[in-house]
Prior knowledge:
- This protein is an alpha/beta fold and 245 residues long.
- The chain is built from ten helices and seven strands.
- The chain has a five-stranded parallel sheet with strand order 3-2-1-4-5, with helices on both faces.
- Strand 1 (39-42), helix 3 (47-59) and strand 2 form a beta-alpha-beta unit.
- The chain binds zinc ion.
- The site of zinc ion has 5 residues, from loops.
Amino acid sequence: MVRPIVDAGTDESSWRAWPAPADWPVLALDDRVRAAPPLVLAPHPDDEVLGVGGLVAMLAGGVEIAVVTDGEASHPESTVHSRAALAAIRRAETVTACALLGVAPTAIDHLGHPDGRVDEGALVEALTGRLRPGRWCVTTWRGDGHPDHEAVGRAAATACRLTGATLVEFPVWTWHWARPDHPDVPWHRARRVDLTGAARSAKLTAIDAFRSQVLPLGPAPADAAILPPNVLARFARPYETVFLP
Length: 245
Ligand SMILES: [Zn+2]
């Protein structure tokens, strides 16, 4: 269900005060996962780091990243950058950020779907060639509230069903519109990824590499930061959250 991302959203202090995550099972990162490192699928450059940057840092070495769109629609009325310029900037930011997590540029694929118009059929086809039974496909939750996040989540779910891969979903904008115990979120499927100190600090440094998103492009309202401090606070936790099937 697509939900408008408006106002300041749920404050991080509400999430921090919520006791439930302490009781979620911890995601097992066993030898099987390390032997067949996940494919991480990001709708836009930055979702891979916001959602599971710490997990990627802890598994670095074999993780593959596929970024579905170039995120060129983040500032549609920008007075500073054209869409083409933003696409190039955001591609480069993902490469810089993922390098900080230990992922080489050769392990990153830019699939080039138009931002806001993900071609789900083409994406399913591209994914089925890369997935195999038991391999994790880690991507945005199908109910995350952003149309691209949901489209990519749906395509990944279909590809996992066709190939026998395991769908591992993560929330991004859910932290904005939902509140603790929100009935529309599958908390019963939640697993906690406890980050090592090194993984958490690598993630925070990697988030900072998305300069076009964490800083304003210019003084005009159309050039405001997409990820202001109240949003970034949700991604600085010592753990990450995923939903297992
Ligand atoms: Zn996104």
